Amino acid sequence: LNSIEHYFRRKSDYKFWTGDIFCENENNKSYCIVLTPRCNIGHSNYDEILLCKISNIEESHIQEFTSTKIADKNTGETKGVKSFRTSITDDVTNNRIGERYRFLPPTPQFSGGFIDYKTMFTQDSVAFLDNYERVISLSDELTNDIIRKFSAYILRGGISETAFDEAHFYLTKMINLKKK
């Protein structure tokens, strides 16, 4: 699948849809993606639209993606190719992507970028449509993957760090009791 096949110009009665990418009218550089579930939009069952910001591909990313240093001597894959491949395939072992970002590759229709799940926000639909213009829509396949990863990011459980010294004290105490 070519990356260009993930983007299309949607024609619909809906002014916004899950997976639509919008650009802020004021600076024309700030992008966001609609994450409100399709069923809510289809039934007008929302108070505000759920969105995430998309950060631009910067010069540092381009330098990383074009690095010619060898990453794998067996395959000859360069660090640049590996970083770009693992970004496109959403490999969470890629330090730039991890669990927080989803990479959108550049194409002639869209400059690409990184969806940052940490930047989620909501906005009234009227204010949103006054301030943003739709640029492109994502395929259902890619949209579903983005929603899946967003859900995983939101549902992280995480626990507080355990105080090592205290845990070690009780472990040592248990070991000493067994020796007696």
Overview of the molecule:
There is one protein chain. β5 and β6 form a beta hairpin. This protein has helices spanning 38-42, 59-65, 79-88, 125-131, 140-154, 164-179, and strands at residues 7-8, 20-24, 31-34, 49-55, 101-104, 113-123, 132-138. It is α+β, with helices and mostly antiparallel strands. The model has no long low-confidence stretch (mean pLDDT 91). The protein has 6 helices and 7 strands. The longest helix has 16 residues, at 164-179. Helices cover 33% and strands 22% of the residues.
Entry keywords:
6 helices, alpha+beta, 7-stranded antiparallel sheet, 33% helix, 7 strands
Q: How would the blueprint of this fold be written?
A:
Elements: E1 7-8, E2 20-24, E3 31-34, H1 38-42, E4 49-55, H2 59-65, H3 79-88, E5 101-104, E6 113-123, H4 125-131, E7 132-138, H5 140-154, H6 164-179
Antiparallel strand pairs: 1-7, 2-3, 2-7, 3-4, 4-6, 5-6
The termini sit apart by: 66 Å
Order of helices and strands: EEEHEHHEEHEHH
| Biggest β-sheet: strands ordered side by side in the sheet | 1-7-2-3-4-6-5
Beta strand % = 15-25%
Which regions are unreliable across 5 or more consecutive residues at pLDDT < 50?
none
Largest β sheet strand count, sense and barrel closure = 7 strands, antiparallel
Radius of gyration: 22 Å
Question: What share of the residues lie within helices?
Answer: 25-40%
Overall 3D shape: extended
Structure at a glance:
This protein is of the alpha+beta class and 180 residues long. It is 33% helix and 22% strand. It has helices at 38-42, 59-65, 79-88, 125-131, 140-154, 164-179, and strands spanning 7-8, 20-24, 31-34, 49-55, 101-104, 113-123, 132-138.
